[in-house]
Amino acid sequence: xxxxxxxxxxxxxxxxxxxxxxxxxxxxxxxxxxxxxxxxxxxxxxxxxxxxxxxxxxxxxxxxxxxxxxxxxxxxxxxxxxxxxxxxxxxxxxxxxxxxxxxxxxxxxxxxxxxxxxxxxxxxxxxxxxxxxxxxxxxxxxxxxxxxxxxxxxxxxxxxxxxxxxxxxxxxxxxxxxxxxxxxxxxxxxxxxxxxxxxxxxxxxxxxxxxxxxxxxxxxxxxxxxxxxxxxxxxxxxxxxxxxxxxxxxxxxxxxxxxxxxxxxxxxxxxxxxxxxxxxxxxxxxxxxxxxxxxxxxxxxxxxxxxxxxxxxxxxxxxxxxxxxxxxxxxxxxxxxxxxxxxxxxxxxxxxxxxxxxxxxxxxxxxxxxxxxxxxxxxxxxxxxxxxxxxxxxxxxx
Length: 398
Description:
This is Macrolide-specific efflux system membrane fusion protein. By secondary structure, the chain is an alpha+beta fold.
């Protein structure tokens, strides 16, 4: 009897212990169930995010362009050097001076060349005197030969005397020819030395502005080893912009393509011109292939200067008052066909379209869409459950 009472008491104690363990779990389940009901069925739940990112087809203007960094140089310039060696005695203009063609720019010490010219003239005078003497001797030899030939004809003289007289005349004629050749040679030497003497004065080959002076007064210029540059003259009225365009963009640019650019110093001002030349030989910088594209622009106010940096925009095309959609909305298939997803009351629909001009942000629609339609540009990754959808069940506990 006592054993039965102890067994009954032990069973009741175990049952109470189990009930104590279960009631915290039941309370937690009730709280979670209530919170889930409030979140999915209650009016305080936040509105679900839309499932798609969309945009409206709008009427507007579009322009496509290619950008490049460029440097500026005068279109026409000349590096003025010297053709003779010597000490640079004087440089007349300063950097920034405007000069006209044939203005005297610099002078080289002419002493050596003046001495050569004087020596050439003296030698030439000596040869001319020798020529006069030879011509007088020829006249005498010719008379003697005529007399000898007459005597031989009259059988009053010997044949040896007649032959000697004829040979002497011919020798005199040869001497005259040799002297004439020496005179011509000396005259050429004199002309060359006179030219070198003239080169000691350096004149401007064109109208322009002195943009740099590389030589210094008193320095010695050696024209035998290289062509020494004294200064540079440039016509700053027209500048050439040299833009470096990547090989991926160069096929879209041709001679005559409109271009505009701004400088770092005047970012709000735009200069305009057209492509004059595309150089066929590229420049490779860090394994990037770049082609030089040349643009000429007027510079009447001289605001553009040598080696300025410019941001160039090549205008490839423009359209006004056309339907536009964001470029991410365009989908391109492997066969090249294009389409967009249009959001309709029945849901998203795929629609084939034809496009025109395009840039990074907008694309022109030429066929397939009208103004006001809504296109899908992407999927909203943060979107919640669709309205009217069945909420998920709370997790099962226990």
